[in-house]
Design brief:
The complex is a heterodimer of chains A (368) and B (282). Chain A has 368 residues and is an all-alpha fold. Chain A is built from 13 helices and no strands. Chain A folds into 2 domains: 97 residues, no CATH class; 206 residues, MetI-like fold. The chains are: A mainly alpha (368), B alpha/beta (282). Chain B: Pfam families: ABC_tran.
């Protein structure tokens, strides 16, 4: 009983409350009167998922038919009846060489998802074998002061997800380290605020592509002697610069709009400036700072794809671009898989920030 | 020389054409150990007056003297209890008090400071709630924390800005007794701002009405000659109490009427006669 209560609280806390209700439904804990709640909270959301997949399936089928008809007609016009019949037969047989290339159906996407996972396990096994094989040699090389041999094979889809997450967190951390202190200074001093305002207003709407180019110009020169791949550095700095504005603006606003009563208390108690900032100003602006950080993280994840693509930095963005360029039969469905993975990870990151925000914020309504 | 002296204080908000004089020509002197109450209507400039005394605001004209020296900024010598408690919601009861005395007694060790916190939290009987946050407390408990916070700094003068204004009548009565009890122990100088005449008479040695602003100024003072400790029920039959209370209320009512008659606005009422429902249904 107690355990399930905690589960309900946790799921509600991270915003997935319907999971708890679903569990109650299966364990038979719900009364008849609660049926409406169950309907609203679990059955309707689940039904909407099925509806979405159904619509997608039908849409994909229609597009597939349009493409197939076009192919057959083209063959008929250019090469005559025999070629048209051959094309139609080829399409019907499911042969890969002549499949119409359009929006993939849910089933195809699911297949691609499984094949990407299979691919991952093959590459991981390959990596492990390589590591084992080179272990002794690498020890010797390190002892001799040489660089150890590393695996340079193709990264799997899962590796690319982790690489993207690494880039996004590095960028987020950079944004946090720049925007929060700067925001505090700007918020505390009206002079700084008015002198920085034009700067913020001009740079805030700049597109991720332009940020990438700017960072590229600078980092390229700074790392001119380095033989290492600078794409990671460039992409995480660009992500950070793109996404920091929400935090900067929110921090400055939070710090400059602390409740006057608290400022009066700080004055009456004669708190020193450090005490005043850390004990009064910062805690009271924490909710706004976290709202900013939440926006920053979601913006970082959103621009990451475009920046990885430009920077040729391995990750989900590059994966999508390479699959598009690749044009293989299952490329389209792999792109859709990446799209869902990007969406789900973005959602989870948002929940993560919300959870942290609820945990640190003082005006929480019900804490765990 | 008086302990606290206000000489010809004027306070103006805004500038040029938009300037409004909130307080004008305020003169007040409070002796050491005295408990003075200032009674006034809501919006008559009471909080402005309090902020001038505690140093949050500076007068436009005139000077505030505390022990003979002009008040510049806030000081630990003058403890303030705010109207809306002003506790920091992210700190617990103990931490709220601790933060105040840490600044007031920078030389004391952490252990000594914690002892002071415990002592004052106990004094307002909140020891069981010492680790709770303000949000978990009732209004009365929050105000008791604010009292403990102000007193723990051991100020020489306590300034209370409508400290009980937001509380219900019963809690209010209890807290009045509690504050008087605590005050009675060492009889520090106290200034109480209130909109409740009874509260003023029950607690103070002297009551001064504040004529409502703009251009608020202090009216004639009323001495309360009732021996301490006072008892609420007995006081109701005290002739002296009745007389003073009536005099103050009459004075305040007169001001109210005066203010109304000064108003130049005229309200035209529609020419309507009430319907005669009683006869209609007969």
């Amino acid at each position: 009983m107690k355990q399930s209560l905690t589960l309900n609280k946790v799921t509600k806390f991270v915003g997935l409350g319907f999971l708890g209700t679903l569990k109650d439904l299966f364990t038979g804990k719900l009364e008849k009167e609660d049926f409406k709640t169950v309907l609203r909270k679990t059955i309707v959301p689940i039904a909407s998922i099925f509806l979405f997949i159904g619509l997608w399936h039908m849409g994909a089928k229609t597009l597939y038919n349009i493409e197939a008809d076009y192919k057959i007609n083209k063959a008929l016009k250019e090469q005559g009846q025999a070629a048209a019949d051959a094309t139609a037969a080829c399409i019907a047989s499911g042969d890969i060489s002549c499949q119409p290339n359009s929006l993939p159906s849910p089933a195809q996407v699911w297949e691609s998802y499984k094949s990407l996972l299979r691919d991952h396990s093959i590459i991981s096994a390959d990596k492990a074998a390589f590591k084992e094989k080179t272990a002794a040699l690498n020890e010797k090389r390190i002892a001799e002061g040489k660089i150890p041999i590393v695996y340079t094979g193709r990264p799997s889809f899962v590796d690319q997800i982790f690489r993207s997450l690494k880039t996004v967190f590095a960028g987020f951390l950079l944004a946090l380290l720049i925007a929060v202190p700067l925001g505090i200074f700007i918020g505390l001093s009206p002079t700084l605020k008015s002198s920085f305002n034009w700067f913020i207003q001009i740079f805030k709407p700049v597109s991720p592509v332009v940020w990438y180019l700017l960072v590229f110009m600078i980092v390229k020169t700074l790392l001119i002697d380095s033989s290492e791949d600078s794409s990671f550095t460039i992409s995480f700095i660009s992500v950070g610069l793109c996404s920091m504005w929400a935090t900067l603006v929110n921090t400055a606003m939070g710090v400059s709009s602390v409740d006057k009563d608290y400022i009066n208390v700080a004055k009456v108690l004669k708190l020193g400036s450090a005490q005043k900032i850390f004990k009064v100003v910062l805690p009271s602006s924490l909710p706004l700072i976290f709202t900013g950080l939440k926006i920053t993280l979601s913006v970082a994840w959103m621009v990451l794809i475009a920046i990885e693509l430009l920077a040729q930095s391995p990750g989900l963005g590059l994966f999508v671009w390479e699959e598009f360029q690749n044009g293989a039969n299952d490329s389209n469905s792999k792109i859709i898989v990446a799209m869902f993975v990007i969406g789900i990870i973005g959602f989870l990151l948002d929940r993560l920030m919300l959870t942290i925000q609820n945990a640190v914020s003082f005006d929480k309504t019900d804490a765990i | 020389m008086a302990y606290l002296e206000l000489n010809n204080i004027h306070k103006t908000y805004g500038q040029g054409d938009h300037a409004t004089e909130v307080l004008s020509n305020i003169n007040l002197s409070i002796e050491e150990g005295e408990f003075v109450a200032i009674v006034g209507f809501t919006g008559s400039g009471k909080t402005t007056l309090v902020n001038l005394i505690n140093g949050l605001l500076e007068p436009t004209k005139g000077e505030v003297l505390f022990k003979g020296t002009p008040v510049v900024g806030t000081s630990h010598e003058r403890g303030v209890i705010f109207q809306n408690y002003s506790l920091l919601p992210w700190l617990t009861v103990g931490q709220n008090v601790f933060m105040a005395i840490k600044e007031a007694f920078p030389k004391k060790s952490k252990k000594e400071l914690n002892e002071i916190v415990a002592e004052y939290v106990e004094m307002v009987s909140l020891t069981p709630a010492i680790n709770k946050r303000p949000k978990e407390l009732s209004g009365g408990m929050r105000q008791r924390v604010a009292v403990a916070r102000a007193l723990a700094m051991k100020p020489e003068m306590i300034i209370m800005d409508e400290p009980l204004g937001a509380l219900d009548a019963l809690t209010r009565g209890n807290l009045q007794d509690e504050i008087l009890n605590i005050w009675g122990k060492d009889r520090r100088t106290a200034l109480l701002i209130t909109n409740d005449v009874d509260e003023g008479i029950y607690m103070a040695d002297r009551i001064i009405p504040l004529r409502p602003g703009p251009n608020a100024t202090l009216g004639p003072e009323f001495k309360i000659d009732i021996d301490r400790p006072r008892d609420k029920t007995e006081m109701n039959d005290n002739a002296n109490y009745k007389k003073t209370r009536n005099a103050i209320i009459e004075y305040l009512m007169d001001i109210g009427d005066e203010r109304k008659s000064q108003s130049k606005e005229e309200f035209v009422l529609p020419d309507l006669n009430p319907k005669d429902f009683v006869n209609q249904f007969k």
